[in-house]
Amino acid sequence: MKTVSKQLRDAIERSGQSQYEIAKQTGVNRSVLSRFVASGHGLRSHNVDALCTYLRLELQQVRTPPIPLAESRNADAGGRGMQGASPSPKARARGKNSKATTKTTKAGTARKGVE
């Protein structure tokens, strides 16, 4: 299934209008629009709304059950998800509740330690 962003990029390209003209008519900054179309750079919601209104697009629910949030997060993280992420070796060495600090000695040299 295409994402909303992909569908919006496709609609912009199919419109037959230049990005300059679309930006001028919608009030979306031209460089923001260009980055979105070229590289998938995100848009703020008010820009999405302006583009969708101009291009006469609307969001409609597809008659399939929604994907559970945990599964969509796993898909975005290459199947791992945040829940399966393990702490870094430094975090494990410090322990759960300690903080790494840097202290300056009288000689002016920095010394790392753990509180």
Characterise the protein shown here:
The chain has helices at residues 4-14, 19-26, 30-39, 45-55, 69-76, 89-94, and strands spanning 100-104, 110-114. The protein is mainly alpha-helical. It has a domain at 4-55: Orthogonal Bundle (434 Repressor (Amino-terminal Domain)). The protein has a two-stranded antiparallel ribbon. Strand 1 and strand 2 form a beta hairpin. It starts with a helix and ends with a strand.
The fraction of residues assigned to DSSP E strands is 5-15%
Give the mean pLDDT.
Answer: 76
CATH fold label of one domain: 434 Repressor (Amino-terminal Domain)
* CATH architecture tag of one domain: Orthogonal Bundle
The number of helices is: 6
Quaternary structure? single chain
Kindly provide the radius of gyration, computed on alpha-carbon positions and rounded to a whole number of angstroms.
Answer: 23 Å
Structural class: mainly alpha
Summarize the structure.
With 115 residues, the protein is mainly α. It has helices at 4-14, 19-26, 30-39, 45-55, 69-76, 89-94, and strands at residues 100-104, 110-114.
Q: What are the defining features of this structure?
A:
115 residues; mainly alpha; two-stranded antiparallel sheet; 6 helices; 47% helix
Describe how the helices and strands are arranged.
Layout: H1 4-14, H2 19-26, H3 30-39, H4 45-55, H5 69-76, H6 89-94, E1 100-104, E2 110-114
Antiparallel strand pairs: 1-2
